[in-house]
């Protein structure tokens, strides 16, 4: 036969009193007003800790755009496998626009010679300036190849000097790899 609500409540009160008695806590609890004050204080402490741990707001994002000098070579052939050619691409470029300086790439490009399509992935090291601030940035670059062109994304992986706190991401594209390309994206300096 199911217990009534009143019977369950009496049992719960009895268990609670026995627990308090066994732990020597009888008569040492908070009154209801004290509970509210303690809860409010604990909530305030937790909120303060959370707000203190949050990073400060970043500077506003701004558009980054400019040009990339042409590719001089797809690179050294690493191997040919399953009808695909793998290149070790170590080219250098000049960037103009928001990023003003030189970049050296270390990437792998895989192309299917039958279709001219493939993928590229690697890193670029930029040395130069952004909005008058100088330093070095490492970009992670990746994308697709559709010869004679290519397009993809870039993400700032890290930096040094005045660019240590620069963050951003965007796209790059070449209608023809052996002609000038372009980049665009958003950047900001973390505090």
Task: Return the string of H and E elements.
Answer: HHEEEEEEEEEE
Mean pLDDT: 82
- The CATH superfamily title of the largest domain: SO1590-like
Strands side by side in the biggest sheet: 1-4-5-6-7-8-9-10
CATH fold type of the largest domain: AOC barrel-like
> What CATH architecture of the largest domain would you give?
Beta Barrel
Count of DSSP strands: 10
Q: Choose one word for the global shape.
A: elongated
What distance separates the N and C termini?
67 Å
Level of helix content?
Answer: 10-25%
Written description of the protein model:
- The chain is α+β, with helices and mostly antiparallel strands and 191 residues long.
- It has two domains: 5-53, no CATH class; 62-189, AOC barrel-like (Beta Barrel).
- 21% of the residues lie in helices and 51% in strands.
- The protein has helices at residues 5-22, 32-53, and strands spanning 62-68, 76-81, 84-89, 92-97, 99-112, 117-130, 133-146, 149-161, 166-174, 181-189.
- It has an eight-stranded antiparallel barrel with strand order 1-4-5-6-7-8-9-10.
- The longest helix has 22 residues, at 32-53.
- It is elongated, with a radius of gyration of 31 Å.
- The termini are far apart.
- The model has no long low-confidence stretch (mean pLDDT 82).
